[in-house]
Specification:
Layout lengths: L4 E2 L6 H15 L5 H4 L3 E3 L3 H24 L3 H26 L3 E3 L3 E5 L5 E5 L3 E10 L4 E4 L6 E5 L3 E15 L5 E9 L4 H15 L2
Parallel strand pairs: 1-9, 8-10
Antiparallel strand pairs: 2-3, 3-4, 4-5, 6-9, 7-8, 9-10
Helix pairs in contact: 1-4, 3-4
Keywords: Membrane, Transmembrane, Transmembrane helix
């Protein structure tokens, strides 16, 4: 019988501490533990980071123009503080998604939803991997309504790679619900590369 995987998703103060640590490590350009150990990392959330960055840049430009033309001088310090907070939140988002990639080792695949949780399965439990577009509401590791056995592991709402398991893998989510997953859906910056890397690792593990 497969062991139960429990998904931890930090909330509140713990999430702030996690993001702060990731931001500090990212700004210091510290190498990832997985890279130091010789594992393969698969990046995710690249398009989402670009979209959020463009929205933030537009917002900061609009806020800056408002600061110059509309706000009284007594309010400008608070407004600048708000703009700095927005920029810091974006940098923390970039850091947590970059510092928490998917990790492929010689024996396991760990799928990451950034700071929102992760699921790890042995390569021997993977039957196949394919490119498939899958969407569901919510964030992090969660079930997909009307699709029993499917878990989505993403920072956003869309996944583009699917891992099919040989038998159900028990996963206890952060909200306390338990799922017997037979399919894991995740996003990758380059889905074709992720598909190839995982497929090759699965075949090698099965020899």
């Amino acid at each position: 019988m497969n062991p139960t995987t429990t998904v931890r998703a930090p909330r509140g103060r713990e999430l702030i501490v996690t993001a702060s640590r990731d931001l500090t490590a990212w700004l210091a350009r510290r190498p990832l533990d997985a890279v130091r150990r010789g594992h393969t990392v698969i990046g995710h959330s690249g398009p989402l980071r670009t979209t959020v960055g463009l929205v933030l840049a537009t917002e900061l430009l609009a806020e800056g123009l408002m600061d110059v033309s509309m706000l009284p001088p007594s309010w400008r310090a608070f407004h600048l503080l708000w703009m700095a907070l927005l920029a810091d939140c974006f940098l923390a988002f970039v850091a947590t998604t970059k510092r928490r990639p998917h990790v492929l080792t010689a024996t396991t695949l760990r799928l990451s939803a950034g700071p929102l949780g992760e699921v790890e399965v042995p390569l021997s439990a993977i039957a196949s991997v394919r490119r498939e577009l899958t969407s569901a509401s919510g964030l992090g590791v969660r079930g997909i309504p009307d699709r029993p056995g499917s878990l989505l592991c993403t920072v956003s709402g869309t996944a583009d790679v699917t891992v099919e398991l040989r038998e159900p893998h028990t996963v206890r989510l952060a909200n306390g619900t338990t799922h017997h997953a037979t399919r894991l859906h995740f996003a990758a910056n380059t889905p074709a590369t992720a598909h190839q890397l995982i497929g090759t690792a699965v075949r090698s593990a099965g020899r």
